Amino acid sequence: MSNLSTSSTGSTGSRGRGRVDRMPKRCWCREGIVALTSKSDTNPYRRYFRCGFAATNKLRNDEHTFKWVDEALINDLDKFNAKIGEVEQQVKELRTQSLEFEKMVCEKVQMKIENELFEKVDDALAESKESNKKMMIVVVI
Ligand SMILES: [Zn+2]
After folding, report:
1. How many distinct structural domains can be found in the chain?
2. Is position 94 within any domain?
3. How far is the CA of 91 from the centre of ligand 1 (A)?
4. Is the pLDDT of residue 99 over 50?
5. Which residues form the GRF-type domain (predicted)?
């Protein structure tokens, strides 16, 4: 039973430093972060990140980095989901943009085809007029 009082130091330690959203590679004391397994009664075998310095010196109630691995993963997952939402939104915007672009290109192509057609029709008309004249000339002769 005497174990109970010391077993909760991990979580109080994390509360002391405030919420750490993303796991940094290093503690603020420049020591690397290590992944450890909790041996406490309240969180047996629960994995956590800890400042290497605090871990080797078995510090308690300190200000060094402490974070449960699962909580860190959930935070990462939340961020990841938020990012996916952003990307989805961007894809949607891109899709409408490309649709508008396609429409624009289609209109341009159509206009070009129409112009070319008009030119060809004009040419054909001019040609037929020419041949009509020739015909007329032939007829007159
Ligand atoms: Zn540290």
Report:
1. 1
2. no
3. 41
4. yes
5. 27-72
* Chain segment 101-134, per-residue pLDDT in tens: 999 999 999 999 999 999 999 998 888 888 777 7
Closest CA to 69 of 42, 39, 38: 38
**What are the residue ranges of helices labelled H in 8-141?**
9-17, 52-56, 69-140
Domain around 56: 3-69
Classified as helix, coil or strand, 35 is strand
Give the distance (Å) from ligand 1 centre to CA of residue 105: 59
Amino acid at 93: E
pLDDT in tens, 40-98: 999 999 999 999 999 999 998 899 999 999 998 888 889 999 999 999 999 999 999 99
